Amino acid sequence: GAGVSQSPSNKVTEKGKDVELRCDPISGHTALYWYRQRLGQGLEFLIYFQGNSAPDKSGLPSDRFSAERTGESVSTLTIQRTQQEDSAVYLCASSFSTGRNIQYFGAGTRLSVL
Amino acid sequence: DQQVKQNSPSLSVQEGRISILNCDYTNSMFDYFLWYKKYPAEGPTFLISISSIKDKNEDGRFTVFLNKSAKHLSLHIVPSQPGDSAVYFCAASGGSNYKLTFGKGTLLTVNP
Known about the structure:
The complex is a heterodimer.
Chain A: E1 5-7, E2 10-13, E3 19-24, E4 31-37, E5 43-50, E6 65-69, E7 75-79, E8 88-95, E9 104-105, E10 109-113
Parallel strand pairs in A: 2-10
Antiparallel strand pairs in A: 1-3, 3-7, 4-5, 4-8, 6-7, 8-9, 8-10
Chain B: E1 4-5, E2 10-14, E3 19-25, E4 32-38, E5 45-51, E6 56-59, E7 62-67, E8 72-77, E9 86-94, E10 97-102, E11 106-111
Parallel strand pairs in B: 2-11
Antiparallel strand pairs in B: 1-3, 3-8, 4-5, 4-9, 6-7, 7-8, 9-10, 9-11
């Protein structure tokens, strides 16, 4: 596709369940980012992948959160034992490389934890 | 600690007039600034950016001004159009730090 694709667009889950969110970056983009937007807040950085380098996980809020990326393709963000405070829109972005390159965002996954 | 602040949650302007959206930052390491626009149920879309070596960047109806001494930037939209109605986010990064730090956004409503 032409843009960053995320699935599912909406996810409702029960507290304590695990969820997996998927991101397909723009073809050729080596960098991939996950952000979270809670209601009324700005976007909060979670994790960053660049090629085959070790990911920067410094934004992950707890060890219940993890992410993987295979090469320069699809990434999955996994949240284990979901809590109500995990409810947010999870946004994925990709760019050609780091630094000054523009990050292009997907439409996000709206996660609701009941 | 909020490093990028957009103090106006909302702004309403008349079609054809100028819209001015403001952003303040506290981290002196930030040297690259971006504005994104976001419609409901869509991801943020890049609008315009500015490097700290400049004080102004213009692209069509959109101009971003940077005042480094005041740690302040603003986005001017002129003339404003109803299609500009959206949430506008200010974002910043610094040096080799690729992470974008975002403000909370300003909801712009352009009335016909």
